[in-house]
């Protein structure tokens, strides 16, 4: 994989997108590998037993998962890249089901071989049914909250892009990733020939899992899936210094600590679990004290710490 060569047109048209389907694939990886992030531990404990029971209902599922999710490798048909036109989880699932037997066999053999007892013709449908079960039973109800968290990360990344260019926005999306300049993006440290993205569409997709991955399809879509950074990947209670909580109150301390990046009121509600009115009231007090400021971005109103607020947190 090594590096991707990205032309100026492809780079200019690339964009950040939020995908419920990609989030479901990330949840599957977390449950399969048993490595929840700190803020996903409650979700993991709530669903891992039912997930393992569901996997056990069909003897083909476990060997298929072992083939789809190998160390440092993920099967392409499991995770087709999203598209800005996608609106629902079903949009991504539809592309999984459209995978041909020949394509499924090629992907599985590339990853190490077709598992015993699994038909290449049936692998896409079996995969789709597992993802569908996972979405319906573990993610659908809490997707609105997760979507807000992911959108907050996108807002932060696009702000970094406007302030520091592609190097600031893309460096560190994934371990080993770095914008090298002159149209070269290092995806990882593997010694593979460069991959040209001429004429391709490139998307950056945040997820709440511990690690990301890259994926592409025959239609020219390429995606870099990356874990949320900063406040979005940490439990809010672990980010509120006790001394600050004693000084200005626990809830205001949580809000001020989270606002090291621009966030909307709705996103702060999702991050903290506080009522909308409570968040709005605390933000008003913090603004009056000169600790946060607000600015408009399109139809959204974003809040961020002032230099005075940052000094207080530190």
How do you describe this structure in short?
By secondary structure, this protein is of the alpha/beta class. The protein is 48% helix and 14% strand.
Q: What can you see in these coordinates?
A:
- This protein is an alpha/beta fold and about 325 residues long.
- The chain has 3 domains: about 5-15 and about 145-230, no CATH class; about 20-145, no CATH class; about 235-314, Orthogonal Bundle (Arc Repressor Mutant, subunit A), CATH 1.10.10.
- Helix content is about 50%, strand content about 15%.
- The chain contains 13 helices and 10 strands.
- The protein has helices spanning about 10-15, 20-35, 40-55, 60-70, 90-95, 100-110, 125-140, 145-170, 240-250, 250-260, 265-270, 275-290, 305-314, and strands spanning about 5, 15, 180, 185, 195, 200-205, 215, 220-225, 290-295, 300-305.
- A 4-stranded mixed β-sheet has the order 3-4-1-5.
- A hairpin with a 4-residue loop joins strand 7 and strand 8 (about 220-225).
- Helix 3 crosses helix 7 (about 125-140), helix 5 packs antiparallel against helix 7 and helix 10 (about 250-260) crosses helix 12 (about 275-290).
- The radius of gyration is 21 Å and the shape is globular.
- Mean pLDDT is about 90; it is low at about 230-240.
Distinctive features:
Arc Repressor Mutant, subunit A; alpha/beta; 3 domains; single chain; four-stranded mixed sheet; globular; about 325 residues
Write the layout of secondary structure elements.
Blueprint: E1 3-5, H1 8-13, E2 15-16, H2 20-33, H3 41-55, H4 61-68, H5 89-97, H6 101-111, H7 123-139, H8 143-170, E3 178-181, E4 184-186, E5 195-196, E6 201-207, E7 213-216, E8 221-227, H9 242-248, H10 250-258, H11 265-272, H12 276-288, E9 292-297, E10 300-305, H13 307-313
Parallel strand pairs: 1-5, 2-6, 6-8
Antiparallel strand pairs: 1-4, 3-4, 7-8, 9-10
